[in-house]
Amino acid sequence: xxxxxxxxxxxxxxxxxxxxxxxxxxxxxxxxxxxxxxxxxxxxxxxxxxxxxxxxxxxxxxxxxxxxxxxxxxxxxxxxxxxxxxxxxxxxxxxxxxxxxxxxxxxxxxxxxxxxxxxxxxxxxxxxxxxxxxxxxxxxxxxxxxxxxxxxxxxxxxxxxxxxxxxxxxxxxxxxxxxxxxxxxxxxxxxxxxxxxxxxxxxxxxxxxxxxxxxxxxxxxxxxxxxxxxxxxxxxxxxxxxxxxxxxxxxxxxxxxxxxxxxxxxxxxxxxxxxxxxxxxxxxxxxxxxxxxxxxxxxxxxxxxxxxxxxxxxxxxx
Length: 318
Prior knowledge:
13 strands; alpha/beta; eleven-stranded mixed β-sheet; disordered N terminus; Spore Coat Polysaccharide Biosynthesis Protein SpsA, Chain A; 2 domains
């Protein structure tokens, strides 16, 4: 879509780009180099290390010093809910080291709270961006253009067109949909179908300041999976829509589906939690989980059956 006409001047502050690192400093440094190609938009970066267990912090700090990047170095204490080493103003890059890995939503909240409450630098949009991506040099420009288009004044969350990192002609995602009965999620990849998009993918999740002011922070009890879906549904209830920006392109590494028991149970548990918070049918959700039990039996994943049954019969779904 061409957004060159009917622009507004509502986006007058820098975009805050939020990056989360956990044990993958190579991806993070590549992402920072990718972002450095953005020339036409004002932005600042908040990079949170989510208690990495390797030398991520050391490697990232070495890179920032070597590249002479204007940065601040702050620590966040999970138990005290406090920041140490607070700078006098936002730097071009603000590095925050958390002493706790609280998941995706937690780390994003640590970053946004630092800007919004600690630095009291309000009026920003927030672009939550995965670090395992390569950004087209126009990715941010296209998001800001779409955000400033008059017809989009009711849009609160924008997403990028996501291509596969290794096969750059293959669309990885345009957004996601939720089955209204079973509350299962589906990744959408076909642009020509013009499907209804129920949520923006968290790999590129652009929140306007108006949407953040009404919707607030992400719920941290998801830890991983469904947090961005829940945020989109909350934003919708606050009167905001979502939009894919086809001119904003990122290339995302294919994470693949984890076969671990922990991830499997977490996804199902979070589906229940999401369904409870967003008014889905208890019968439909539980029926869908019984199908999941049958699938695990067929796969001979017997150690997962009891935990799923416990979810079905003990977790409250109104």
